[in-house]
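protien #1 (seq + structre)
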Amino acid sequence: MPDTQRPMAVTLQVVSIVLFTFIGYLNIGIPLAVLPGYVHSELGFGAVIAGLVISVQYLATLLSRPYAGRMIDTLGSKRAVLIGLVGCGLSGVFMLLAAWFSNLPALSLASLFIGRLVLGSAESLVGSGAIGWGIGRVGAANTAKVISWNGIASYGALAVGAPLGVVLVSQFGLWSMGVSIILLAVVGVLLAWRKEPAPIVAGVRLPFINVLGRVLPHGCALALGSIGFGTIATFITLYYTTQHWDNAVWALSLFGASFIGARLLFGNLINRIGGFRVAIACLSVEILGLLLLWLAPDAHLALAGAALSGFGFSLVFPALGVEAVNLVPASSRGSAVGAYSLFIDLSLGITGPLAGAVAAGFGFASIFLFAALAAAGGLLLSVYLYRQAPKAREARGA
């Protein structure tokens, strides 16, 4: 284990592990900007189905979280990451089948749905597994750093993957995404195979339902704040199309770049001023960005709104996550990460069809007002948790 007094050594160790999160989320990012348009324009399905193709992945992640958490705590985080990477590769196989059956819309759509379900299950293993692996290697005192860098890896991969997927499909066709996903998964498995695992922590493991109860309020605040990301990720391309604007993919990239920049610049604030304060500030900024997207008269201000939303959303997950994970013993850390992450899966899972229904009834711009109102609910809940935190600490001490 690296010397925890040497921040650079810790950071390098963390980065070497969250690399697998980057690979896993690159597989998620590559089809992100392509699939809604493919389902809507090429296969001829409506906006709700187009949103559901993206969201079903998050629903699969949600349903697999309890199993993933138990696997991380009992079998080890490295093994969980390896199994997850294999699942990513399998999702690429179904992407190839979807391309193969592109002249049979129902069959192509079914292949996409199965692939998204497999990818969602793999995501829960890779993302939570990497966090558990990182914390196990560098110590619980660096939990905020591990969660922050894991997020940089995931959203950085989405920022890179989205335009990469557009280029691949425009140059070679839908099949090229499937091949790319398979190759990335193979590289990830080969790299992870030789890395040193984290020790499995002994001790009493809390039932998942108990862990879920402890992190419930923090997770609800996260879920409300995550609707903005889900809305941008799923519908920004169709929003740009309805407004007759070009280069929608840059909105996703700018969201990701702002997200990463904020984590690099302000990630240490969580340990310095506390998770709740950081979450409150970030959700406030995210609300402003979403309102700007709602009111944007042109593509330039829409880009500014996407950037502001990414900047604001950046530290919500680690800020509330540090407070949530600290509520359980180390032996149940994997379950805590899984239970807490479940809420972002739930949020992203329902955002696609829900925002699609809002768009169908009120227009695509209105989905960003809807997301801003949800984030405001997350802000109010974070303020409440911040005010209740001293009482909760006293109760645990007693």
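ok now protien #2
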Amino acid sequence: MTLDIDFVRAQFPAFSEPSLAGIAHFENAGGSYACGPVIERLTRFYRQRKVQPYGPADPTRLAGEEMDEARTRMAAILGVAADELSFGPSTTANTYVLAQAFRQWMKPGEAIVVTNQDHEANSGPWRRLAAEGIEIREWKMDPETGHLDPETLEDILDEKVRLVCFPHCSNVVGEINSVTEITAVAHAAGAFVCVDGVSYAPHGFADVGALGPDIYLFSAYKTYGPHQGLMVIRRALGELLPNQGHHFNGGSLYKRFTPAGPDHAQIAACAGMADYVDLLADHHGAPAGKPSKRGTFVHDAMRAREIELLQPLLDAVKARNAVRLIGPSDARVRAPTVTLALNGSPEAVNAELARRGIMAGAGDFYAGRALAGVGADADKGVLRLSFTHYTAQDDIDRLLNALDDLL
């Protein structure tokens, strides 16, 4: 199925915004444009519903209903129960809260596995538990390829391991990890699984229920929505961990791990992400049925579009002597997040791209451990070029021409 790119781009006000005309967005890994339904819902909430939700009067009743709609519909797309999805201020904050729950639940000497492929948000909070007597074991990626091999995970699992944390894909390596396979290995050893989906979710929402992890986290501001963190915690684990919210909310699964007051408007606006999935599904002929199946239909269409655009970019950079492509060169096994270690200055190249109307990124992207793990200079940083399904072919052509000149 071919994605109708004109229809897709029509759903994003940014592409008709005069101030953004002539700018090609290649730093989507840092944040995507918001889709129209999200902006409309957020605006409506602030205009009509900016009151304490869940009361009997119409404005407050409707505010609560819109918040519940966002959780119910997004959970259905993710293939989980509505109360297994929580909203928090960010994925970093959500992970920190989870780490505190595990700190209280685990005993000294028990272990958590982390990787050196992760963004700091899904690594640092767990690593800090070493100060509480929790053993931290690092599952290392291949220093040449950046690949996380499930067989090497088996070597560090034993009866002490309570949790295995890894990314669906790294924000600098880009390779898509086999969540189902890795989860099965961890579960067979008696460990729970926490997956950081921040860098994967912009390329299609995962059917978390089918994949099988116990925790799955991602950020709405990278999936065309507001600045919220979405966190799936499956019931068996969520009811086992200590409550981190107000004591009177301990009986509500989706409130147990949200100690801060929720951002009512942004939660309600997250229903716009479900609206966008439905718009794409209906326009491209997806049959009616389970939201998770329709979400998978849209996911697959997004990925097919991205693979088509990504392979020429990988081909253009992988053979250059002055450039090292980090991660695989096969578009079918990686997200369209292309990280380049350069002989020269990444910041200088990024500045020149900006002068040409190309918005990219340079730095370590809070992934210093991952860059060091593949032998890149984390202090120097890297150039990162990232896009999504809404990127136009003309933008890819502009980028390739600019890289020809600059690299």
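DSSP finds 15 helices and 13 strands in the chain.
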